Epoxyqueuosine reductase
Amino acid sequence: MPQQQANPVTNEQSSALVADIRRWGLELGFQQIGIADVDLAAYERRLDRWLDEGHHGEMGWMAAHGRKRSRPQLLHPGTRSVIAARMDYLPPDATPVESLLEQPERACISRYAVGRDYHKVMRSRLKKLAQRIEKALGPIGYRVFTDSAPVLEKPLAEKAGLGWIGKHTNLLNRRAGSWFFLGEIYTDLALPADEPVRDHCGSCRRCIDICPTQAIIAPYQLDARRCISYLTIELKGSIPVEFRAAMGNRIYGCDDCQMVCPWNRYAQFSGEDDFQPRQDLDAGDLVELFAWDEATFLARTEGTAIRRIGHERWLRNIAVALGNAPTSPAVLSALQARIDHASALVREHVAWALQQHPH
């Protein structure tokens, strides 16, 4: 959105405007709206330490863009406030994660990815919210984001009072758990910021203890290089052998730390049709998913977040899951069918998987 001259809004008007923005946000399907200022200095120092320790792995984009990630006014000049929003995504009809993990012949896909790509849904709603503000005020300078640019989403949401960053480094809300997406509107409006909420993790360490690969190396510290979400989505090459058995049947992301969090007893199911699970992705049979050629993969994952990993990594991930699955003629046959695959990456993981099934 082109930068406009900042709208002069009095304190009284801005408080009323924020109330309106919250109401409009709820009408558009968001569950909560908060306002943050743009001072992220403390988070910037934490980010620098995390990057210096190499915990971002191959996610070079986390270190790119200079200070734009931690200084909103550099990313979008003129930004004075950030409108932060959250939207529940847990689909009521999806197979529970706990159940999937007990069915090693089925694929466990992170619950956020079994429906339509959230980027499209969130960006569309955020743009509508910004346009609703413009309808009331006239043109403003703004830009909307949903995990789509160098933005410190969780810190901004924490500053906006939407929750606190838990020991697993996800945002937690006392009334909604963590099964929600985040999005932001950077704006030149000077809006009164909300107060952050207190950390309520206490002495609980369930997320730390459950992590299959021990990626949460200390409370509030994640080594992404060990995280199954990173290994199955962000990592482009070979999955380190030391983590393959621990991946189990998780072929895209991992929800274990959310699954065991006590605050998720208060999580609300999503009412969004777009987030409802697609039949092939909710609890798919590993052997059947492994048989998809590239055209089928592209067709079945069209409009989803899964498509971004591509067919090669899809096969890589499923090969690992098949290596962890119970030995059966169907599993062995599926792996044998890919043993001469054109991709060296796929061949390597298929060979490893077959080694897990003495025959």
